[in-house]
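Holo prediction — iron/sulfur cluster.
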Amino acid sequence: MHYEGPIYRPPSEADSLLVQATVGCPHNKCTFCMTYKKGPAYRVRPVREIEEDLESAIKIYGTHVRTLFFPAGNTIAMPAPELARICVYARSLFPHLERITVYGSSKYIFRKGLADLKKLRKSGLSRIHVGLESGDDEVLRRIKKGTDSAEQIRAGKWVREAGIELSEYVVLGIGGRERTREHALATARVLSAINPDFIRLRTFLPKINTVLLHQIKKGRFEVLSAHEVLKETRQLIENLDVTSRVHSDHYTNYVDAHGKMPEDREKILKVIDGALKKDESAFRPVYVGTQ
Ligand code: SF4
């Protein structure tokens, strides 16, 4: 079994078999992300190598694997026929597989198009985790996400239309103090247009070796305080018109705001309001992350 570069996977894939299909990230420009900044460079692994890793996984775990995740940063960018081939092969080796998941930015999902997404679904791909980060075009431009809100909406809708489960990640505070309101409202608008299966909240923490940390040090970006993040979260939840499940499955978050929308909206807002009654000193400080 081979693995190159940092091992990075969604928390919800903690129990999944990880078999690397791609190395690095083809975009690698987001100003807040340090995961692949020092390499390795993006490449697609040869299909036969991936198949061999799947075969060796049987020797370790048997055929009763239930969930499979194909790292790395943007495996949806892999040529569709090759991704389809490894999905089909994995399903043949592991007949009890319930889910095959990849990471995919809207930019690369958009390039795939609806027809390829439908083919991938038929081949067994069942879930995509998308780093939406924000629905605000100005924030997306500043963080160099390589996409805009219109493309994020098209890509998200296609994933759903193809019958693939969709997880959209939001980074609270990624607009800084300057665009907190715009970030909350535009993100709510984009998510409402997509109506993903899952909305996963993370809170911005500066990371070492990132452009955004440099901007903070130069005074060009102000990190939100805990209360400011909570108010932004409130604004986001208030304006969501979705039937998604909201998850708060990340160590960076100040509060566990989770539930099924829209029925749990009031419950989530109550949790946020309860947290807002606490003094700022009750929350973790802003620090520079190393991972
Ligand atoms: S956040 Fe995702 S798309 Fe952006 S550079 Fe990091 S891995 Fe690549």
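READOUT: The pocket of iron/sulfur cluster is lined by residues 25, 27-30, 33, 35-36, 73-74, 105, 131 (CB under 6 Å).
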